Amino acid sequence: MPSLGLPELLLVLLIVVIIFGVGRLPEIGGALGKSIREFRRATKEEEGPGKEDTQKGAKED
After folding, report:
1. What is the pLDDT of residue 25?
2. What confidence score (pLDDT) does residue 45 get?
């Protein structure tokens, strides 16, 4: 899988600016940040009970 270098990232940023405009970039960034935080929180909540069950099972054996 090809990696994204600086020229590719600049091209993507340019396309985003053309599509959404400079004024909407902070809104888009904030929404993206919220989405990432919620996703991380959900994955941590899901991992929590599974790890505890695994540790209890290892102690009982």
Report:
1. 86
2. 86
